[in-house]
Amino acid sequence: xxxxxxxxxxxxxxxxxxxxxxxxxxxxxxxxxxxxxxxxxxxxxxxxxxxxxxxxxxxxxxxxxxxxxxxxxxxxxxxxxxxxxxxxxxxxxxxxxxxxxxxxxxxxxxxxxxxxxxxxxxxxxxxxxxxxxxxxxxxxxxxx
Length: 144
Description:
disordered N terminus, 6 helices, two-stranded antiparallel sheet, mainly alpha, 42% helix
């Protein structure tokens, strides 16, 4: 199989012959390939990260299935975005893992980074939590 065939977004078979069309949680590696140029050497890690992202979403947003019912595909979109951020961060040159902002000065030789959390890795952004319904108020009544 040539690299061009392999990079076809509809292809679900890896060079090792394994079929990656099966979901790894809420998303497949094929879904991830549509939003991130996944390298062959990253596939096993990506599959594991998709499984971890699924668990993080399910535990962080107990009503995640309501979000999926309202907007089919949102769980796959969020899981893929979480995993893609991990790979983008890994490929970023000279930026520490987990950094969300960087400042560099030339003459003063200063360099600073801002962190949203102490380490990088899988995380849900506030807007993703909002899409999943976390923090939404609900009205209830109790019969006395």
